[in-house]
Amino acid sequence: MGRRGPKPADVSLLKVYAKEWALQLYELRDGRPAELYKVKHSVRLEKDGTRIPLTKYIFVAKFHPESNEGRKLLIRLPPRVGDAEWSVVRPVVADSETWREFQRARMVETYHALLARVEARLPEEQRSSEMWSRLFRYARERAADLVKARQLAHYPRAKNTDRPTSDDKRIEFFAKVLAGLALGLAPATATKRLARWSPPIPETSITVRPFERS
């Protein structure tokens, strides 16, 4: 019997996992400002008389709550506006040092500690979800593959390691590798399967300076 080839994987699921990991790594590096939404509640009446409650979220603004502009915005908000109320999505504070350590780690134990930091940043409901429980479990169990991944020839390297485009490529690389671990794929296989695909870059990481506590 010949040598078995790489394990078959659902590429669509691989992309879903990679997209989720990329978002977490971008927020780890850059953070995310708070978001303000106007929330409108209504009721839709069905033909049989059933009343279906509806909620519509209307985006208003992004802001840093610790900035003067953010404080003024929150102070001036009235409790309600007509039939609408306000909802503020909490900000995510950047931890660029953890991201730098993530790229330099050379030991399994170090990756275990770094993954614990990333996991702790997630809201409890997200952290305990079936998907993220799986992603973190396999990342920890196969942390040795993370150590080896940086030795691959296509790992994004640059003379200037702080160059934004190079750093974005490293986030993309690790997101694909971490996604593959959850599906039983070696780093080289996962990155090859997604070689022609890139996860989206959050708007904050393109247009906004990293949100860090002063």
Provide structural commentary.
The protein is α+β, with helices and mostly antiparallel strands. It folds into two domains: 11-32 and 94-207, no CATH class; 34-89, no CATH class. It has helices at 11-30, 68-76, 96-104, 108-121, 124-127, 130-141, 143-149, 164-181, 187-193, 203-207, and strands at residues 34-45, 51-63, 80-81, 84-89.
Continuous helix count: 10
Beta content comes to 15-25%
Strand order of the largest sheet: 2-1-4-3
What is the total number of structural domains?
2
Largest beta-sheet details? 4 strands, antiparallel
Radius of gyration from the CA trace? 21 Å
State the shape.
Answer: globular
Q: How far is the first residue's CA from the last residue's CA?
A: 62 Å
Helicity range of the residues?
Answer: 40-55%
Order of helices and strands: HEEHEEHHHHHHHH
> Quick one: how many beta strands?
4
SS-based class: alpha+beta
Mean pLDDT figure: 85
Query: Which regions are unreliable across 5 or more consecutive residues at pLDDT < 50?
Result: 208-214
